[in-house]
Automatic annotation (TrEMBL):
Lineage, uppermost ranks: Bacteria, Bacillati, Bacillota, Bacilli, Bacillales
Protein name: LysR family transcriptional regulator
Keyword DNA-binding carried by entry: yes
UniProt source species: Pullulanibacillus pueri
Keyword field: DNA-binding, Transcription, Transcription regulation
Pfam families hit by this protein: HTH_1 (PF00126), LysR_substrate (PF03466)
Matching Gene3D superfamilies: 3.40.190.290, Winged helix-like DNA-binding domain superfamily/Winged helix DNA-binding domain (1.10.10.10)
Domain of life: Bacteria
Length: 294
């Protein structure tokens, strides 16, 4: 048994198909099959159920996958640490909410890339809930999330203060009147979005408990539906200000108790902090220092 066998085993488990795994890894199929048989002989147990659609992990197979993930993660971390030099290089994997990715990150990532072009930047977007989980699982090295984050395994850096704005098609709301809100469709991101949680909590505090909801997965989708007059949504002012005047979108600021939300950068305390990571922290610290409180 070697690390390559474990890497191939993980790929087969994720794909559920030996043929696809062989294509993905540029192996011949018989080579992949031989590696799986070698592991089954090593542990004296069946790791996969074979069926016409591919393969499925057995109970022992799921146990081995759990250990394989840990082993491969540790080996990747060891390689990253041992190969770290004074010049930032390698891959830096980050996560961000869509609103932050659309407005705040372009300048930050551009500045970072200008200084450290040898670093390959990887960015995934998601809700605050998804990004916290990805950071805790160490699938990414850090993420920009919203609201309060209090977890013993996470380090938290305050970065931005975002003003929250209610946006609607022009003339669809004359003012921020609760009676009007009751009749509106509320356009929100999927569950796990911190801004959605804030908005729903605020609506409930005003007695609006059964508002019609339209759930979307992308920022472009939310903005498109608002432009079309399908409902109203809660966005950051940094996003709302980017909308063209010709889009006929009006903005209304929420009351003081929910008008401002902090954006934080989080990372797992025990990740390997490469020089690429340390330099990124310096860049976002600089960006935070330039951020004007709202």
């Amino acid at each position: 048994m070697n690390l390559e066998d474990l890497r191939v085993f993980r790929e087969v488990a994720n794909e559920g198909n030996i043929t696809k795994t062989a294509v993905n890894l540029n192996f011949v199929q018989s080579n992949v099959t031989a590696k799986m048989k070698r592991l089954e002989q090593k542990y004296e147990t069946k790791l996969f159920y074979r069926h016409k659609h591919g393969v499925t992990l057995t109970s022992p197979g799921r146990v081995l996958l759990s250990y394989a993930e840990q082993i491969l993660h540790l080996m990747d971390e060891a390689e990253k640490t041992l190969k770290t030099s004074g010049v930032p290089s390698g891959t830096l994997s980050l996560g961000s909410m869509e609103t932050t990715a659309a407005t705040r990150l372009p300048d930050i990532l551009s500045t970072y890339h200008d200084h450290y072009p040898q670093v390959e930047l990887s960015l995934q977007t998601g809700t605050t809930e998804e990004l916290i989980k990805a950071t805790l699982d160490r699938n990414i090295e850090g993420a920009f999330v919203a609201g309060g984050v209090n977890h013993p395994e996470l380090e938290v850096t305050e970065v931005f203060a975002e003003q929250l704005i209610l946006v609607s098609k022009e003339n669809s709301l004359s003012s921020l009147e609760f009676d009007q809100l009751k009749d509106q469709t509320i356009i929100v991101f999927k569950s796990g979005c911190f801004y959605r949680e804030v908005f729903e909590t605020w609506l409930r505090s005003k007695g609006i408990r059964h508002a019609r909801m339209m759930e979307l997965n992308t920022l472009d989708g939310v903005i498109g539906c608002v432009k079309a007059g399908l409902g109203i949504s809660l966005l950051t002012k940094s996003v709302a200000d980017q909308l063209c005047k010709n889009d006929h979108i009006q903005q209304m600021r929420l009351p003081g108790e929910v008008s401002t939300i902090s954006t934080k950068f989080i990372n797992h305390r025990e990740i390997v902090k490469t020089s690429a990571f340390h330099e990124f922290i310096k860049v976002i610290d600089s960006a935070a220092g330039l951020n004007i409180p709202l």
